[in-house]
Amino acid sequence: MASGNPNQLAAQLRPLLARLVRKLRKLSPANEQLSQSERSVLVLLDQHDYLLSAELAVMEKMTPQSMGQLLQHLFQQGLINRTASPDDKRKIHISLSAAGKELMQRVRKERNEWLSKAISEVCTKEEQAILQAAIGPLSKLVEYE
Hints:
The chain is mostly helical. Helices cover 68% and strands 8% of the residues. Helix 3 crosses helix 4 (64-76). It is elongated and about 55 Å long.
């Protein structure tokens, strides 16, 4: 059934993946009070021990001023910590607070539970095997620059 046409595959895959991502975002009540940019920053902080505000701004393609406002909001919500660098007191390390880590775990758990339930209820064992096999190629797409 595969057409071998990458353009056609891309045109079919892109909207489905976009819809799945939007659905997963909406399904997480724990994540509702945050903007997409705030959620993205929390994900980055979850992947690193700490980052500098300037690093986050570059990663998120934001101005330093906008990142400063975003970080202030996350700090006010108790989701991040700010710690002076032991090497250079002018640099502030931004990291997830205990509440931020708990939020990330809760969001991840909610999304995993929904996706697991959906897979088990609507996909046959053969379809589940196809999804498992697709993880490798999809991972390559995510890493592609």
